Amino acid sequence: MPVAIPRSRPSLAAVRQWYEDELRWPTTGTEPVQLLTGVRFDALDLPADAGRAVLGRVGRTGPVAIDRGGAAGPRMLMLVAAGAAEELAGLLEWLEWGSLGLDLTARGTGDRMPAPSPPPAPYAPWPYGPGPREAAGWVRPPEPGYEIEACLPTTGSGAGRGGRGIPLADRQGRAPDLVRLVSAAATECHRARLLRGRQARRQTDRGYGDQPFAFSNASRISAGTRPRSLTL
Question: Which of 167, 209, 161 has the alpha carbon at shortest distance from 59?
Fold first, then answer.
C-alpha cells in the first residue's frame, strides 16, 4: 500500500518572499506570516461549512483560503476586491439580510489574515488544504503572474463576466459579481446556522411542528419564487 508522505513546510522567509515577490502582496513581520488586507484585496470571512456550500453553488470566485486556527472553528476566507469590506453591511441590508446577525464579516483596511503556505506547482486541484501542521491553506490558490485584482469579486457594470481561464487582456473589468457572492454567502451562513441548531437539539422539531427555513427575499429571487419584476 503506498504511503502518503507529507510535503515539507517552506521556511517563513520563503513564504514571505513568495507573497511579496510573486504576488506583490504586503505581509507582516510577525511569525507566523500574515497578509495585510485592505491593500490589494479584502476577504469575506464565514464558517467553513457555509463556505464549502458557497463554492458548490458559485462557480467563479477569486482565491479562497481556509483558516483552521481560530477558536470558533475553521473559517473560509474568500478574497474580494479591496474596498468590498466597507460595502458588506450595505449589501446585506439591501439584500434584506441585515437584521439576522449572520456569521458573515469581512476583513479590510487595518485587518490581516493568515498566510497559507504557497501552493505547489502545478497547482493542486480541489481539495487543496492545509497539512496536519498548518493552520491555513489554499482551497483555490492565487495564480502568480496574473493581475489578481482583475479576477476578484467586485461591484459595478463590469462584474460577473470573467475570471480564471480568460486572457489577462480580456479580464479587465470582468471580475465575478460581489453582490451575488454575498447573497450566496448570506444564504449559506443562515442555512448552516439552522442546521447546526437542529443538530445541537438532537431532534427535528417533532414537538414544535414543522418550521420551514426562513430565507430573505434575495434567496427566493435566486430560487425563482418571486415575481420576475422583483429579481436582481
Answer: 161
Alpha helices in 161-208 (DSSP H): 168-171, 178-201
Grid cell 438532537 in the structure block, residue? 202
Report whether 50 contacts 189 (CB < 8 A): yes
Query: Has residue 164 got a pLDDT over 50?
Result: no
- 113-143: pLDDT as tens digits: 999 988 765 544 444 444 444 689 999 999 8
Kindly tell me if the per-residue pLDDT of 216 is higher than 70. Answer: no
**Edge-to-edge order in the sheet of strand 105-107:** 105-107, 42-47, 75-80, 64-67, 136-140
What is the rounded CA–CA span in Å between residue 85 and residue 182? 11
Q: Give backbone dihedrals phi and psi of 168, rounded to 5 degrees, phi first.
A: -55, -40
- Residues belonging to the chain: 232
**CA trace torsion 21, 24, 25, 27 (10° rounding):** 40
Strands (E), the chain: 34-36, 42-47, 64-67, 75-80, 105-107, 112-114, 136-140
Reading phi first (left if > 0) and then psi (alpha if -120 to 50, else beta), residue 212 is in: beta
With vertex at residue 117, the alpha carbon angle to CA 115 and CA 120, rounded to the nearest 5 degrees, is 140
What distance in Å separates the CA atoms of residue 185 and residue 100, rounded to the nearest whole number? 13
